[in-house]
Amino acid sequence: QMHLEESGGGLVQTGGSLRLSCAASGVTFSRYVMGWFRQAPGKEREFVSAINWNGGNVVYEDSVKGRFTISRDNAVNTVTLQMDNLKPEDTAVYYCNARSMTMTMYWGQGTQVTVSS
């Protein structure tokens, strides 16, 4: 059983930056594709970004390309989402996600990101 714990959310003004971290425990971290999703009030949870086991392949949702950067450190079981040039539409609860090759999924509890205009 994998445990995921996010940190780093908060309140920031438009154009500001935040760095989200997700610490994993309980399983072999490097065997999992790691990702970030977000859910704004009244909306469905949506994909933000993902990174493969060694960081060699990353993908981003179109609206965050060029502003967000995902990375991982398998030595310390952590995935990070650097968010720059934040916009009010980035306001949401951000969730860390882990997916195995057998499609087993784990979720963190979420961290709130609020971008004021």
- Tell me which oligomeric state these chains represent: single chain
N-to-C series of helices and strands: EEEEEEEEEEE
From the spread of the alpha carbons, the general shape counts as globular
Largest beta-sheet details: 7 strands, mixed
- How much is the average pLDDT? 96
Can you tell me the residue ranges where pLDDT is under 50 for at least 5 consecutive residues? Answer: none
Specify Rg, calculated over alpha carbons: 13 Å
Distance between the termini: 40 Å
Class by SSE composition: mainly beta
DSSP, total strands:
11
Relative strand content = over 45%
User: Helical element count?
Assistant: 0
Helix proportion range: under 10%
Overview of this protein structure:
This protein is mainly β. Helix content is 0%, strand content 53%. It has no helices and 11 strands. Strands 2, 4, 5, 6, 9, 10 and 11 form a 7-stranded mixed beta sheet that branches. A 4-stranded antiparallel beta sheet has the order 1-3-8-7, with no helix packed on it. A hairpin with a 5-residue loop joins strand 9 (92-99) and strand 10.
Summary, kept brief:
The chain is mainly β. The chain is built from no helices and eleven strands.
Features:
seven-stranded mixed sheet; 53% strand; mainly beta; four-stranded antiparallel sheet; 117 residues
